[in-house]
């Protein structure tokens, strides 16, 4: 009884919360609609200020006082708007004088079309029927009208005064001018008091100051770049449009190009409206149809080029809004604020999306508006298998593998499905669900093996036996590992699943097997694994044992766990298992992977390095300062700046703590053999290299220098010349594994570019563009584009 009472209270509280939310939404919608006369100029002003803010910032950085910079930018804006207005007025005046000359052409074409319609054809019967019905209805209405004809009434208007006439004429003209003036004042004040406005918005947002600042920066960056790129896209469309109309011979080509640039600011309907005018004029000017057809061809070709080439190049990434949310937002803002709302719909919705990402209470906005899938790929596949929709699950798997790799798919989505199935085994999953998961995963793996077959190995006897530790899902993960090993040309097969008891061990045949991998998805398999490893070593002492503990976090101390269980290695991913097994079978491959290949420009790179003062020690104090700053900013244990010559790596800059590492040194400069260099892989690829856990990476898992420094995390950004010669790297190292975000990658690249500029004495820009700061993946390729 008490439990029911508690449930009733909880249900009542939830209902009250829902009611409060609905009332709040209704109030907000009412305020948006009722206050549109004030909110529309404010929204337009803020969007224009976002577009002009980079230019004002540029002038301020050139030591121009902010009032002067804002005044200059606003004056430039007024000059541009006035020039456009004068151009449009002059073009319209010229066309209005020429329009009467086109009346005969229009009349002849209409008459020709009418004659064509009245010629004998397949629709004659239909047209006669329509005419007969129209005549009968007309006669009936005429007769009825004659019988009951009402008295005619004439309304005589009151005499209007000149003042009323002037007011009736001026009000429609002055209202847009007043709105334009309000927008101008708002833009000027927003640019002039940008810092104060930002502080007030931060106060309104409240909460975490870092999160609020990030939200404002992201919104400003997205919207300002969106508007600037929109201007560039429209101009690159309008200029070929005007030139093409000029070549075709359509009058007023400058007007139609300008109109096309302006109308494309209106989503969806703008391009259509801008195409109507030149098409209509082409219809009126040319006696035939060639001009109309050429104009249609020009517009279609320009639209295809702009949509498929220009916009993706200039925009680059998506707004983060899904295609459905873009259409819904356009409909909503148009209903609220009319045509102006349609123009403002995308920027305003981007602001709402940014708020949803950075304000926890508004995360529902990100779910509703964002292009990021609501469920990750692993969860989507798991749900499809529960729903017995195996075909859709297989399609998702194939799409993911084609976009990455087979091993990466198994490590992320494949194991995620099995982990979720294992976690829900005794909680929410019904027996039917468990059966669907196992059967569906079996079909999915069979399809992947057909789509991505491994190379045929020469030796028929398997090197590796993969065994599921306890449950059927463990056996499924063992099958995944076999496929990964086959892709690496390692012969492997699965053995019958079952609880690894002594009775099971007696029936186990491991003849010809060199490595045994036992897969576990359960939370605490250590005791069972320890007992099995002991029995296995007693019976087959020469066999190597690898334990796949897929539930472990990447930061776990797998070396200690392997010693406790009596195994050769403990791994947490299929990729790591593949490389560990390959190293056990072929030790020389592991040694070879530690060594980086020399880049093609190695001689030129070394020559450019020796032309600098990097190896002389002249820059040591400044480079130490950069390394210390990097270690502090990224919160890592230590950082180094290194350079590589023919045979050696020199640590030319370092933060505190490096001196205590077990490495050799030559005077003030630490020197390491190039075979043991920590940045040689960065020199090889010439790009940022991030290793979240060196124990899992074959290049660093047995690296002597990395192991002597006890480093578990590594990130190296290349330093060198602006022409691409890489001298070495700015390296971050940490004694525990960690994640490295996209923002941190970009920041490390910028810091390495500063170091490169210091070394070479020239500006080197190696900052990486961040395609998606939130790691989001668009759910639809039709989503509108906008720059990050």
Automatic annotation (TrEMBL):
Cross-referenced InterPro entries: AI-2E-like, GAF, GAF-like_dom_sf
SMART domains: GAF
One GO CC term, this protein: membrane
Residue ranges with Polar residues bias: 776-788
Topology term for the membrane: Multi-pass membrane protein
Residue ranges of the region described as Disordered: 762-788
Gene3D superfamilies xrefs: 3.30.450.40
Keyword field: Membrane, Transmembrane, Transmembrane helix
Domain named GAF: residues: 618-769
Localization terms from the record: Membrane
Regions that span the bilayer: 12-33, 39-60, 67-89, 167-192, 231-259, 265-285, 292-310, 330-355
The keyword Endoplasmic reticulum is annotated on this UniProt entry: no
Pfam families per the UniProt record, alphabetical: AI-2E_transport, GAF
Family indicated by similarity: Belongs to the autoinducer-2 exporter (AI-2E) (TC 2.A.86) family.
Name of the protein in question: Predicted PurR-regulated permease PerM
Native species: Paracoccus laeviglucosivorans
């Amino acid at each position: 009884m008490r439990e029911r009472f508690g449930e009733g209270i909880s249900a009542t509280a939830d209902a009250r919360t829902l009611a409060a939310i609905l009332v709040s939404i209704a109030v907000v919608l009412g305020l948006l609609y009722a206050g549109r006369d004030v909110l529309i100029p404010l929204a337009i002003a803020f969007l224009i200020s976002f577009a002009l803010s980079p230019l004002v910032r540029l002038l301020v950085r050139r030591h121009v006082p902010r009032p002067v910079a804002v005044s200059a930018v606003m004056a430039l804006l007024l000059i541009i708007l006035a020039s456009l207005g004068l151009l449009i007025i002059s073009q319209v005046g010229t066309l209005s004088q020429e329009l009467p000359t086109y009346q005969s052409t229009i009349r002849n074409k209409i008459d020709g079309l009418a004659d064509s319609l009245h010629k004998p054809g397949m629709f004659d019967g239909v047209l006669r029927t329509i005419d007969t019905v129209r005549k009968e209805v007309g006669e009936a209405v005429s007769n009825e009208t004659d019988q009951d004809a009402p008295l005619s009434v004439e309304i005589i208007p009151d005499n209007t005064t000149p003042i009323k006439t002037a007011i009736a004429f001026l009000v429609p003209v002055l209202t847009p001018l007043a709105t334009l003036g309000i927008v101008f004042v708002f833009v000027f004040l927003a640019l002039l008091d940008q810092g104060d406005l930002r502080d007030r918005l931060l106060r309104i947002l409240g909460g975490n100051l870092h999160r609020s600042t990030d939200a404002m920066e992201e919104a400003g960056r997205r919207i300002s770049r969106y508007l600037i790129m929109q201007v560039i896209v429209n101009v690159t469309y309008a200029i070929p449009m005007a030139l093409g109309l000029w070549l075709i011979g359509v009058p007023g080509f400058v007007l139609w190009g300008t109109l096309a640039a302006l109308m494309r600011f209106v989503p969806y309907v703008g391009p259509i409206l801008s195409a109507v005018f030149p098409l209509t004029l082409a219809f009126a000017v040319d006696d035939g149809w060639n001009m109309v057809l050429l104009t249609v061809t020009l517009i279609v070709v320009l639209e295809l080029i702009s949509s498929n080439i220009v916009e993706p190049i200039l925009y680059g990434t998506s707004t983060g809004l899904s295609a459905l949310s873009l259409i819904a937002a356009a409909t909503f803002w148009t209903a609220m604020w009319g045509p102006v709302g349609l123009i403002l719909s995308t920027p305003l919705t981007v602001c709402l999306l940014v708020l949803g990402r950075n304000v926890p209470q508004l995360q529902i906005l990100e779910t509703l508006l964002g292009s990021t899938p609501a469920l990750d790929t692993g969860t989507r596949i798991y749900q499809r298998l529960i729903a017995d929709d195996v075909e859709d699950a297989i399609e998702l798997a194939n799409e993911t593998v084609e976009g990455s790799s087979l091993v990466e798919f198994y490590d992320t989505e494949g194991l995620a499905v099995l982990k979720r199935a294992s976690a829900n085994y005794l909680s929410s999953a019904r027996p039917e669900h468990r059966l669907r998961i196992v059967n569906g995963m079996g079909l999915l793996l069979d399809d992947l093996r057909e789509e991505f077959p491994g190379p045929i190995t020469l030796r028929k006897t398997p090197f590796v036996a993969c065994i599921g530790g306890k449950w059927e899902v463990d056996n499924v993960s063992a099958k995944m590992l076999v496929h990964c090993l086959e892709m690496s040309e390692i012969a492997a097969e699965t053995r019958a699943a079952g609880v690894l008891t002594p009775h099971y061990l007696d029936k186990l045949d491991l003849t010809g097997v060199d490595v045994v991998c036992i897969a576990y998805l359960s939370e605490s398999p250590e005791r069972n694994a320890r007992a099995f490893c002991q029995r296995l070593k007693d019976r087959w002492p020469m066999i190597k044992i690898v334990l796949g503990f897929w539930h472990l976090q990447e930061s776990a101390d797998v070396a200690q766990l392997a010693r406790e269980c009596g195994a050769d290695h403990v791994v947490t991913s299929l990729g790591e298992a593949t490389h560990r097994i390959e190293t056990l079978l072929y030790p020389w491959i592991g040694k070879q992977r530690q060594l980086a290949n020399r880049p093609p420009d190695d001689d030129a790179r070394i020559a450019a390095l020796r032309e600098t003062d990097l190896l002389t020690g002249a820059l040591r104090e400044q480079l130490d300062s950069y390394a210390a700053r990097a270690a502090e900013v990224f919160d890592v244990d230590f950082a180094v700046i290194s350079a590589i010559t023919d045979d050696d790596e020199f640590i030319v800059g370092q933060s505190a703590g490096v001196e205590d590492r077990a490495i050799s040194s030559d005077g003030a400069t630490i020197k390491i053999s190039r075979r043991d260099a920590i940045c040689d892989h960065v020199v090889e690829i010439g790009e940022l290299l991030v290793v979240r856990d060196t124990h899992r990476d074959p290049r660093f898992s047995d690296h002597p220098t990395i192991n002597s420094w006890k480093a578990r995390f590594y990130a190296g950004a290349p330093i060198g010349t602006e022409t691409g010669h890489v001298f070495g790297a700015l390296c971050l190292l940490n004694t525990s594994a960690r994640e490295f975000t996209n923002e941190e990658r970009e920041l490390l690249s910028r810091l390495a570019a500063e170091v490169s500029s210091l070394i070479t004495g020239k500006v080197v820009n190696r900052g990486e563009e961040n395609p998606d700061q939130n790691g989001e993946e668009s759910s639809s390729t039709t989503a509108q584009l906008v720059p990050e």
